[in-house]
Amino acid sequence: MEAEAFPMSFLITLATLALSMPSWSAECSVSDTSAVMNKIREYLYPSPDSPQHRRIAWTQANSDDERIITEYSGLRISIECRPPSKADELNGIQQHGEIHLEYEAARFMNFPAVTAAGVQWDEWSKWIDERGSWNPSILFRKYNGKIQLQREFVGPAYSDPVPAAYVNRFFAEAEAKAAELRVKEAEQQRLDAERAEKTARQKELWREFEERVTYRPDPNDYYPSNFLAGFFLGKEVADGVAEVRVCVDPAGRENVQVVKTSGVRKLDRAAVNFWSAYRFKPAPDPQTAQDICVERRVNFKRSDD
Predict the structure, then answer these.
(1) Which terminal CB of the chain, N or C, has fewer other CB atoms within 10 Å?
(2) How big is the CA angle at 149 (ends 63 and 97), to the nearest 5 degrees?
(3) Residue 251 in domain
(4) Residues 157 and 216 in one domain
């Protein structure tokens, strides 16, 4: 057969189960074919349930956080090489083409998540044949003597293969990650329990506090007088929220301290004066009672409404 009868390029098919060296086109040398196959092997790994099947993990929605796993039965790999253009050569590209995945059947599953309970697997889809399924191809190029897949020179795509080394590392580290999540979960549960206990205790203290109040002052009477005058003169008026700790001893005497400043000294002082104006009755049994301490907020705000 004469040389003119051969096409410019043609597919080189490899039986995946053996992953042996295929034949090659005039545009794809033995070394290039070997290099491309070595590259794609980095993304293939056997199914733990059916070692004759092959799996590849893929990114989805252009995101490294969204992945699926595809399991193939009867997977075959085809390499299509194309001659580089003059511009390619000047840009350091010696070869480029596509890696095609062909198979008898495939199924899909979301990439598992790791929780405190361990690896959480999703459910596999039903098996579908190649005619009714996604049949991806992966761009590749040989750049400065190195084979690169599409993500390395095109950027993230909807379907980028995930290296098998990443998948293996994910499962190797899964139990340690799950243990770490369990520790964090237990710590969060402890903090939540402490917070709930503190809230319940504060409610009880506030109930006891309220039962002992005999006089409540009007907070508007304690807004600093010079600020109040400024309000009526149309000048800027200071606003602020001061947090104070109010303690009442068994005899009904109060002690007020600022625990978080409003940022304005006069407002802090006004908050202390306001709570110091409260009056309390003694505890029912002063001999056994303890101080009651609560933290309250005083919101000083003037408006022309």
Answers:
(1) C
(2) 130
(3) yes
(4) no
